[in-house]
Amino acid sequence: MVIFNQKNLFLGAIALIALFVSTKFFNAHAEGPPAMPPPPPITMAAVLEKDVIEWSEFSGRIEAMDAVEVKPKVSGTIEKVHFQDGAMVKKGDVLFTIDPRPYKAEYDRLTGALAAADSALVNAKQEITRAKNLMATKAISKREYDERASALRIAEGNMRAAKGAVDAAKVNMDYTDVIAPISGKLGRAELTEGNTVNAGSSAPVLTRIVALSPIYISFEVDEQTFLSHIQHYPADALKQIPVQVGLANQKDTPIPATIHSFDNQLNVSSGTIRVRAINDNADGKLVPGLFARVKLGTPRAETRLLVSEKAIGTDQSKKYVFVVNDKNMAEYREVTLGSVVDGLRVVNTGLKAGDKVIVNGLMRVRPGAPVTPDVVDMQTEASPTAKPAAEAKPEVKPGEAKKEDGPVLIPAEKEPIKVQDVPSSVDQPKKPE
Predict the structure, then answer these.
(1) CA 266 – CA 223 distance, rounded (Å)
(2) What is the mean pLDDT of residues 90-112?
(3) 195: helix, strand or coil
(4) How far apart are CA 201 and CA 158, in angstroms?
(5) What is the DSSP letter of 88?
(6) Does position 214 have pLDDT exceeding 60, yes or no?
(7) Residue 23 to residue 18: CA distance in whole angstroms
(8) Of 31, 291, 324, 379, which is most buried by a Cβ count within 10 Å?
(9) Rounded to whole angstroms, how far apart are CA atoms 259 and 276?
(10) Closest C-alpha to 98, from 178, 181, 198, 185
(11) Mean pLDDT on 288-304
């Protein structure tokens, strides 16, 4: 008879635990080390090399080629306003009329003085002619002759002074009509009929005119872009630099323009150079003061390397890509980037033609690690061996034949069997005879 006590139970439990642990340990060593995971699948594409025009984008403003503040040149009361606010005017059109009566009266007075001076001059000329004849016969003295000659010179001076005064009065009288000095679009009339204005440096602004066609687009180009895209081109090629302009409410830059001029020096405080582009603005849609997005291209297409934005990773302030080598290993490459062209990013340094970069799967890759690549196109990211999806075959209705299978008829569905047509398996009771 076996006696079970606590000691025997404890020793038995220890034995069972030891047997379980040793079995697990043996099985683990018998299976061997765990298998290495396969290389991560990725898609890669060859770096695209093509001739492109590289664009750089800047912020700018629309500016009028000519802008004038119209001020009075003579003092007086505004008698009439000859335009509507915001109207288009041509050079020489009358905008305001200042009361001309005081200036007309002054002109008439000075015209009379001019006539008197002219009469005195005629008389002085006649006197000197007589004096010459008398002097020849010694009928007058030399002193009297000199006095008449002096009177002639005084008369000539008075004539010039009177003529100048008349001319000045004529100018002032003409200034009573305030005319447009340039062609363009008017602002509002700052002063209306009945207001008195003064001429001079403190003269008020009557209205403003801006020329709308053609029009300037002013912007500033940074030093790096200027050195890499502009400086090495000859001066005659700068006019060929393509410029595209877009307004604040436009997603793209649909307005074409051309370079008008570059400033003669770089602004040392901002590190930029001022640039002016020009547009004919025939429809007048570009209004001075509007914000503009300006894209500046290279004068001619140049060969560049391009990669998809998905292939570019960021490591703090650095940009990098992974290149797949001949052994299907990922190599880390630091790159410097250019502008975006047709949805792809220009790579200035770090890659060469023929390199294959990882497009999808960057997060699963480590430098020097093997990968399982699948080749795709850089532009479309589609596999070059992919076949187009099969066209869906038209559904065949009952009673119709498949055209591709020949004249095989498909029977139509049978009518459902009626209950009364089914013979009953249960014997019906006979009627009594």
Answers:
(1) 8
(2) 97
(3) coil
(4) 32
(5) E
(6) yes
(7) 9
(8) 324
(9) 6
(10) 178
(11) 89
For 286-375, where are the alpha helices, taking DSSP H only? none
Which helix (DSSP H) or strand (DSSP E) does residue 275 occupy?
strand 272-279
Helices (H), 137-212: 142-175
Between the alpha carbon of residue 429 and those of residues 189, 405, 426, 432, the distances in Å are 117, 56, 9, 9
CA dihedral 134, 140, 146, 150 (to 10 degrees): -70
Residue type present at position 239: K
Q: Is the pLDDT of residue 344 over 70?
A: yes
Closest of 107, 106, 120, 108 to residue 157, by C-alpha:
120
Query: Under DSSP, is residue 119 helix (H, G, I), strand (E, B) or coil?
Result: helix
Tokens of 398: 């009952």
Helix axes 142-175, 101-136, angle to 10 degrees: 160
List the structure tokens of 289.
């003061």
More confident residue, 143 or 407: 143
Q: Which domains does the chain have, with CATH numbers?
A: 66-97+183-210 (2.40.50.100), 100-175 (1.10.287.470), 212-297 (2.40.30.170), 302-375 (2.40.420.20)
Residue 403 CA to residue 243 CA, distance in Å, equals 58
Residue 413, pLDDT score? 45
CA distances in angstroms from 336 to 47, 180, 237, 313, listed in the order given: 14, 55, 27, 12
**For position 271, what pLDDT does the model report?**
93
Instruction: Pick left, alpha or beta for residue 118 (phi over 0 → left; psi -120 to 50 → alpha; otherwise beta).
Output: alpha
DSSP 133: H
Which residues on neighbouring strands pair with residue 255, listed in sequence order?
245
Q: How far is Cα 433 from Cα 152, in angstroms, rounded to an integer?
A: 174
Say if residues 255 and 312 touch (Cβ distance below 8 Å): no
Q: Are 200 and 138 within 8 A, CB to CB?
A: no
Residue 381 has a CB neighbour count (10 Å cut-off) of 13
Q: Maximum distance among all alpha carbons in the chain?
A: 194
In tens, the pLDDT along 383-428 reads 766 555 444 454 545 444 444 444 444 444 444 444 344 344 444 4
Which of 138-142, 170-174, 273-277, 350-354 has the least mean pLDDT? 138-142
Which residue in 83, 90, 102 sits closest to 190, CA to CA?
Answer: 83
3-state secondary structure of 70: strand
For the segment 192-216, the average pLDDT, to the nearest whole number, is 95
Q: What is the mean pLDDT of the chain?
A: 84
- pTM, two decimal places: 0.65
Average pLDDT over residues 58-67: 95
Residue 390, helix vs strand vs coil: coil
Residue of 74, 76, 119, 81 lying closest to 97 (CA atoms): 81
